[in-house]
Amino acid sequence: MRSLKTAVCFALAFSLSAVVTAGPIYGTIVADNQPVKDTDIEITCGEEPPLKGKTAADGAYRINVPQEGQCALTLPAYEGKPSATIFSTPNPALYNFALVKNAEGKFELKRRQ
Questions:
Q1: Of 37, 46, 62, 79, which has the fewest CB atoms closer than 10 Å, so is most exposed?
Q2: Which CA distances in Å does 68 have to 40, 44, 59, 96, 111?
């Protein structure tokens, strides 16, 4: 019975440490005041492989980023692969963006409040 309690405590401690160190990045992406839905998102931090996700029907996204520090959020399917600098911390970080087309016809991500 003691080994079962130890195993449960270890599993609980391990799962809590994973949650505490994760840096969830979340927000919405819109274009022309309409949600950008079902769009691929990549978040890259340092030399780590990109973390991938998708926007929901309302343009919302949420990706848990285990690395802390400066990262890049990219929409790889759009012309010019628009990207924006974001920061991952142990606390949830809100980043709302507007997807806009520039004069050259490429897309850019603009932070919005």
A1: 46
A2: 22, 11, 24, 19, 20
Strands 93-94 and 23-31, by their bridges, are: parallel
DSSP SS3 for 7: helix
Question: In whole angstroms, how far apart are CA 112 and each of 1, 7, 93, 109?
Answer: 54, 46, 14, 9
Residue length, the chain? 113
Find residue 59's DSSP bridge partners: none
Backbone angles phi, psi at 70, to 5 degrees: -75, 135
**Residue 5 DSSP SS3:** helix
Q: Which pLDDT does position 23 carry in this prediction?
A: 82
Q: Measuring CA to CA, which residue among 98, 94, 93 is closest to residue 109?
A: 98
